[in-house]
Amino acid sequence: MTDKRPAVYIEGIAVDIGWADATRSLTEMIFSTTRRAIDEGKKSLDTIDSVVLAAHDMVDGRSLSSMVTGPAAGSYLRDETRYSDDGAAAFAAAVTRIEAKESTRSIVAAWGRASEHDVEAVARATFDPFFASPFGIDELQVAAMRAQAWMRMGGDVAARAEAGQRRIAAARANPRALKVGGRHPVASYPLNEADMPRWADIAVSLTISAEPSAVRVAGIGQSSEPYWIGDRKLGRLAGLEQAAQRALSEAGFGPEQLDVVEIDGLTLFDEAIGMEAVGIAQRGGGMRSMATDPRSNPSGGAAAGYCAPAMGLARIVEAVMQLQGQAGTIQVPRARRALATGSCVVAAQTHTAIVLEAT
Amino acid sequence: MSQVAIVGVGQTPYRRSHPEKSSRELIWWAAKEALNDAGLGIDAIDVIIAGVAPDALAGEVSVERSGMMGIGKPFIRVNTGGVTGSSAVFAGASYIKAGRAKAVLVFALERMGQASSSQQVFNTIFDPVYEKDFPLTTITMAALRASMLMRLYGYAPRHWAEIAARNAQAARKNPLAHLHNDITPEDVLKSPLLAWPIHRYEACPMSEGACALVLVDKSLVGNRKPAWIQGAASTSDSYAMGDRIRRKGATLVDLLSLSMSAKRAYAEAGVTKPVKEIRVAELYSAFSSAEAMAYPALGFCESADGPRFVEAQATDKSLPVFNPSGGPQGANPVSATAMVRIAEAALQVRQMAGARQVDGVERAVATGQGGATQFSTVCVVGNKPNT
Q1: Residue A66 domain-assigned?
Q2: In B, which residues are within 8 Å of A4 by CB distance?
Q3: B59–A129: do the CB atoms touch at under 8 Å?
Q4: Under DSSP, is residue A243 helix (H, G, I), strand (E, B) or coil?
Q5: Is residue A55 part of a domain?
Q6: Can you give the pLDDT at residue B1?
Q7: Could you give the angle at the alpha carbon of B68 between the alpha carbons of B220 and B81, nearest 5°?
Q8: Sign of the CA dihedral B239, B244, B250, B251?
Q9: Is residue B93 helix, strand or coil?
Q10: What is residue A102's predicted lDDT score, i.e. its pLDDT?
């Protein structure tokens, strides 16, 4: 951080994970989550001057969906912008606005309701309409190819079963995770059901400002990978590696000093490869990390509930709770430093890494 | 905080469709022009901000990803409807002002020529239960406002026609414009009614194309020709238009979100008398009545004086020049239109607007409007940085 750039702190946080709740509309879900985040931050709505959203029209089921969802997240007569990108990317953009002194306090919110859209169909539509989409490929199939590539590159799968069990146990223990309902998508070889995400309805909100609070943003890193899947080294997440290095460099500490790492990965394999990319596991050792390292996705990751584009922000909220000592049954003792990530289409083409530190 | 300058502008021609070009090619076309104008290569760019609005118009979700360039750089997509282009510029400026980037490439792409019916897509921006089944589209929505302006302030069809004909003539000087129609106010009034009181020639076309800008920190300006971003602001209003029809002091046609943005942007830029201090206004007004609606919100006249302000434009050369590019009535690539406004304002300030150049432009304003005028942005650019 430069001297001129103010530090940014996280104030209130809230996450809501459920499934097909017919008693609440999407806007009601967004409103109640945002309201909780504002209340928890203990600053009045009047002190908030900007709103930064991550939401996708195809997920929300209508064009320019932020017209109706934005006001539920507090945008009325405020400076609002919406990213059709992952929640962590929107978080990074919101932080830059505070750093640029364009805003003093901001709401950052992201959501997705998997029970109300065809997740696989939307994922298929992100691929090239001539050369990829006709194969029926979606992001989960790319995850399966990534798992195979990783194994071919020497990835150690000996701990796979143990990692899968720990991941599901963590999700069961997580008080914020999806408990009832949800949907497991069909697994493509070599993935199996235990590796898969659990589609859920998710809304996440938080408030940030330059006023000191219990958790500060210590570093931000963002990166991107080529559009064509064939142009990527699938067994690695090179973009995430670069994003994490940038964030840690800015924070001024190494991955070994992290107490918690919350990776946004679609499957167990993606999460394991993510642990390698951010540097808390050796190359090929990500699955072992997922099985044994208490720092690796204590929330249960995608098994706790998944719906793009909310996941990067959900990972940030889980990391903040750890640093606040408020993570409940999944609390990592004495957590002081955390890294949370978010990735976005097409099949993890863009990446954001956020380093957080308890003050 | 750092000051931000626009030093590169790139635009494709705007056409009904570009069947011979992929989305990737359109993005790269505009980006390459902007980088060439700036004298920078992609390696000098720190962050890329993409702007694409409804995916349904392109028929491809997250189509901007196909235009990925500068692999390894931060790449983020903005989607704020009609203000997508300006929101992308503002996001890029934030990265520079925060000290996280020295140079940012922003681009916006519109591929609505791929949609079988853009109005059907736009109908899906409205509430699926209470509004969608009405014939509510961007055209009928504008007609509702135009009739309100007539009732409240005495506008007549002739006023809309004068504005439309002026924009059409301006577009003829802009080789990038989609339409180059030689039309008079009489032609406008004789053109078919789309939705009373709006005639076909008062409406924007459906255009495809891409626009890109290179934004840099003051330290990188050097001997490049800059347009400084002197003020920028964005404001969101309520979703339901019904909530705004009778809102005291800020009705549907008062454009509260635009006036709030203008106040903030002007304050940042040090503009106190916009009609005197702004030489060119590039307005996101898809219909000529919408342009008239923006004048008072931007401080150019009082609402009640709107009709006379339109009439005075023909004779009073001291007034700002509106839409010398032809504005959205010359080309409306929706996702990109608000960025095009900033691009055209920047070209004017940089004295690089070619046949459409207005003499003596030191400061220009560009607006963005989207989501049934729910979202409004104002950007003031000038040939000097703020002091």
Answers
A1: no
A2: 1, 99
A3: yes
A4: helix
A5: no
A6: 60
A7: 90
A8: positive
A9: helix
A10: 96
**B344 — contact with chain A (CB < 8 Å)?**
no
* A284 contacts: CB under 8 Å, gap ≥ 6: A150, A153, A154, A155, A156, A276
Residue (of B233, B42, B74, B374) closest to A86 by Cα position: B74
Helix axes B334-349, B84-97, angle to 10 degrees: 60
Question: Strand ranges (DSSP E) for B45-156?
Answer: 47-51, 75-78, 103-110
Characterise B319 by phi-psi region: left (phi > 0), alpha (psi -120 to 50), beta (else): beta
B125 touches chain A (CB under 8 A): yes
pLDDT digits (tens, 9 = 90+) for A161-186: 999 999 999 999 999 999 999 999 99
Question: A240 to chain B, minimum CA–CA distance in Å?
Answer: 9
| Cβ(A182)–Cβ(A200) below 8 Å | yes
- Report how far residue A189's alpha carbon sits from residue B255's, in angstroms, rounded to the nearest whole number: 55
**pLDDT for B141:** 87
Domain assignment present for residue A28? The answer is no
Q: What is the mean pLDDT of residues A336-340?
A: 98
CA separation for the pair A311, A290 (Å, rounded): 18
DSSP β-ladder status, B103-110 and B47-51: parallel
Give the rounded percent of residues in chain A with a pLDDT score beyond 70: 99
Task: Give pTM, 2 decimals.
Answer: 0.97
Count of the separate structural domains present in chain A: 1
Select the more confidently predicted residue: B118 or A134.
A134
Q: Which of A63, A222, A345 sits opposite B62 (nearest CB)?
A: A345
* Per-residue burial over A304-333, b = 16 or more CB atoms within 10 Å of its CB, e = otherwise: bbbbbbbbbbbbbbbbbbbbbeebeebebe
DSSP-derived pairing of the beta strands A350-358 and A337-344:
antiparallel
ipTM confidence: 0.97
Give me the domains of chain B, ranges plus CATH numbers: 4-116+209-214 (3.40.47.10)
Is A159 within the bounds of a domain?
no
Question: Is the pLDDT at A324 greater than 60, yes or no?
Answer: yes
SS3 state at B217: strand
CATH label of the domain that carries residue A239: 3.40.47.10
Q: Which of A91, A208, A224, A228 to mutate to test the interface with B (most CBs of B within 10 A)?
A: A224
Determine the residue among B62, B106, B229 to mutate to test chain A binding: the one whose Cβ has the most chain A Cβ atoms within 10 Å.
B62
* CA-atom Rg of chain B in angstroms: 19
How far apart (Å, rounded) are the C-alpha atoms in residues A85 and A350? 9
- Is B64 within 8 Å of B52 (Cβ atoms)? yes
For residue A33, what is the DSSP state?
H
pLDDT along chain B (387 residues), means of 10: 91 96 96 98 98 86 90 96 97 98 98 80 79 78 94 96 98 98 98 96 95 98 97 95 86 95 98 98 96 98 97 95 98 97 98 98 97 94 95
CA distance A131 to B282: 40
Domain of A302, in residue numbers:
215-358
Cβ neighbours of residue A151 closer than 8 Å, sequence gap 6 or more:
A157, A190, A235
Q: Which helix (H) or strand (E) holds B364?
A: strand B363-370
What does DSSP assign to residue B320?
P
Picking from A349, A293, A346, the residue whose alpha carbon sits closest to that of residue A122 is A346
DSSP B110: E
**Residue type, position B365, single letter:** V
Portion 362-381 of B in contact with A at CB < 8 A: 370-372, 374-375
In whole numbers, what is the pLDDT of chain A averaged over residues? 96
pLDDT at A152: 97
A1 pLDDT higher than 50: no
More confident residue, A152 or B137: A152
